[in-house]
Write a structure and sequence with these properties.
Layout lengths: L23 E6 L1 H4 L5 E7 L8 E2 L5 E7 L3 E5 L6 E5 L5 E4 L5 E4 L7 E7 L7 E2 L4
Antiparallel strand pairs: 1-2, 2-9, 3-10, 4-7, 4-9, 5-6, 5-8
Amino acid sequence: MSAALRLVRADALSSGTAQTSGMVRTAAISGDLVGAQGLWMGRTVVMPGATSGDHHHGESETGIYVVSGNPVFVFRDPDSGSLVRLEAGPGDYVWVPPHVPHREENPSPFAVAVVVIARSTQEAIVVNVPEL
């Protein structure tokens, strides 16, 4: 692909990306879609009352921006072994280090949680795991 800017419209996101139960990921920027070489970006939607499956993103660092809703990001503290819950809201950012199992929860019975995700790899690496 040529080295030109590319516009990806909201209605043109691709669901042909790695998935985890309880959420819907769509890709906007990836190697396949726009020729990205070191970046993946997309959107994740968690419906009201839903909880995603436990997963990690392999070697990717992941940056998350909360667009709407109040998603909760759950992971196991490596020192204590206890579960940690990060309660986020619109405008917040969450960083997920490589290989850290986590899940997303949407405790709202009414509001959809929408986040924008950026990863440090050109494709979405998703490794679903049985538990945190």
